[in-house]
Design a protein that fits this description.
The protein is an alpha+beta fold. The chain folds into 2 domains: 19-44 and 186-286, no CATH class; 48-184, no CATH class. It has 13 helices and 12 strands. The protein has helices at 8-15, 64-87, 94-109, 112-131, 134-140, 149-156, 160-167, 169-173, 176-183, 235-243, 246-260, 273-279, 281-284, and strands at 2-4, 23-27, 35-38, 45-47, 56-57, 60-61, 186-191, 201-202, 207-208, 218-224, 227-232, 264-267. Strand 5 and strand 6 form a beta hairpin. The longest helix has 24 residues, at 64-87. The model has no long low-confidence stretch (mean pLDDT 94).
């Protein structure tokens, strides 16, 4: 099953501004940077990226992370995006703000590399916890029970250890603590209409300039060819942003998107090719 790590509704914000409802995908991982026009459903996905290794694990179905959790998250975020485009940030309700924060967090957790790390570290974390304080399990175990708590879990909850990270993905994305940090930042909506160039969208779309605790953190997410959403911490960063010419800020956002892209960068058309080549010249011809 296709699991989109860049949500289709976000890609559609670019596609819907073109006559054929498609976007240009530049392949940064191939020589000469070939490009092709693709529909949003035909790119930025991996097969079974968030699927579990068994049909049901701890009451969670194999494809449930994608078909229930992430699709519901994206559906809510898509509605918030329409509001932002139409009426700006001031139109968002308390629920809208939380939906959007959880969506932003998910963009960091659902990349292919993050998904693989979550799967690996999650199982190791659970194994370590189960092996801790074995005497407590021994004190309550019957003679017919498995020798260790880990063995008991494997017998009674098959697949949980292997899939623990992915089963717990929603707890990270919906973390109250992380959400509160983001809700406490300054939110911006930048409009670049009228500029000669348009915003690019990376296959790793959300830009974090630092760790969450950093005092000068900036989070940026292009949400359309001419609009970008941002969160900032601290007056210094806010003052710097306010002093930027729109032309320069658009260029810096595109440079950041290019800097963290893994394989693809998305655009409305072929016009950014020279910009991309100039910024990534060494990487493209390695």
């Amino acid at each position: 099953m296709r699991h989109h790590y860049v949500p289709q509704f976000l890609l559609k914000a670019w596609a819907e501004t073109t006559s054929d409802k498609k976007i240009v995908s530049f392949r940064l991982d191939l020589p000469q940077m070939p490009s092709s026009r693709l529909s949003p459903k035909s790119t930025a996905y991996e097969e079974d990226l968030y699927s579990l290794s068994q049909s049901i694990v701890g009451g969670v179905e194999k494809q449930e992370i994608e078909t229930t959790f992430l699709q519901n998250l994206d559906s809510n975020a898509a509605q918030v995006l329409v509001k932002m485009h139409t009426n700006g940030l001031s139109s968002l309700t308390h629920d809208d703000l939380r939906y959007w924060v959880h969506f932003v967090i998910s963009l960091k957790a659902r990349t292919p590399e993050a998904a693989h790390i979550i799967k690996s570290r999650g199982s190791k974390h659970l194994e370590t916890s189960l092996d801790d304080k074995p005497h407590e399990y021994e004190a309550i175990a019957d003679t017919s029970d498995p020798t260790t708590l880990k063995d008991w879990v494997e017998e009674h909850l098959p697949g949980l250890i292997e899939n623990f990270g992915m089963v717990s993905l929603d707890k990270f994305v919906l973390s109250h603590d992380i959400a509160q940090r983001l809700l406490g930042m300054t939110w911006w909506l930048w409009n670049f209409e009228g500029q000669q160039n348009h915003l690019l969208l990376s296959d790793r779309p959300c830009i974090f300039t630092a760790q969450l605790d950093a005092h000068d953190l900036v989070i940026a997410l292009p949400i359309g060819p001419w609009k970008a959403f941002m969160m900032t911490k601290g007056e210094r960063v806010s003052d710097i942003l306010k002093s930027q010419r729109h032309k320069d800020l658009l260029m810096r956002i595109n440079e950041s998107s290019l800097g963290q892209a893994q394989k693809r960068i998305y655009a409305r058309d072929e016009s950014p090719r020279r910009f991309i080549c100039n910024r990534l010249q060494g990487r493209l011809y390695e």
